[in-house]
């Protein structure tokens, strides 16, 4: 995406990065409820609560990115042909596929692609 998610002066970038790091931390934390399923409804470690909070924040910021890009496109600004432009323009070709990706599908794909990028960066470095 063209939005600079590494800009230290950007509040959105910082919040998005923190949410993504939280998502990775909570998804990698051992959960006692996996061993004792009857404890799942109590969320003893508050992992579900933390994951819902961070995923909600990441999706909210992805929604902001999407709305900004759609606004730019409506104003007739030049397309960048980055991941976000491609996702907006995707069209299904078969009868079992949607004509266009929904806003929710695009936001999920943005969050997942960023999670994969952050994970690869943390494993392989710069």
From TrEMBL:
The source organism is: Capsicum annuum
A UniProt-annotated Pfam family: p450
Name under which the protein is recorded: Uncharacterized protein
- In the UniProt record, does the keyword Ribonucleoprotein occur? no
Q: Name one GO molecular function term.
A: iron ion binding
Similarity section = Belongs to the cytochrome P450 family.
Q: Which UniProt keywords apply?
A: Heme, Iron, Metal-binding, Monooxygenase, Oxidoreductase
Q: Determine the domain of life of the protein's source.
A: Eukaryota
